[in-house]
Amino acid sequence: GSVGSQSLTGIPHVHALRQALPESRIWPFEFEDGEMTEETLEGVKIVFAEIYPSLVPLKAEKGEAPDAAQVRQIAHHYSDLDGKGVLGRRISTNNSLDEGKISQIQAEEGWILGA
Q1: What integer pLDDT is reported at residue 96 of this predicted model?
Q2: 36 within a domain of the structure (yes/no)
Q3: Which residues, including other chains, have CB under 8 Å from residue 35's CB and lie 6 or more apart?
């Protein structure tokens, strides 16, 4: 599928979910500097983020659909990073960009968690 059409389909759904779930936030747009820290996550129960399941190698279990395997594996990948205490640093948007560039990208493009 086309990224543009997927975005046009997905954005209204994410917006509706965000409105229905006040304890949620959209990464990186609702996090200062894109960082998730204990402070920025205070009161937050759900974080919405764009993912790229192909970020990790596909290893489907017997009989498992490839899409299901990708989702399972990327969830385990992020869980492992979080368990090691490095997820927040890995997803920070301010690691290599100046503030002006971050603002420009956030206004014009998407961010993929961990990419």
Answers
A1: 63
A2: yes
A3: 88, 91, 92, 93, 94
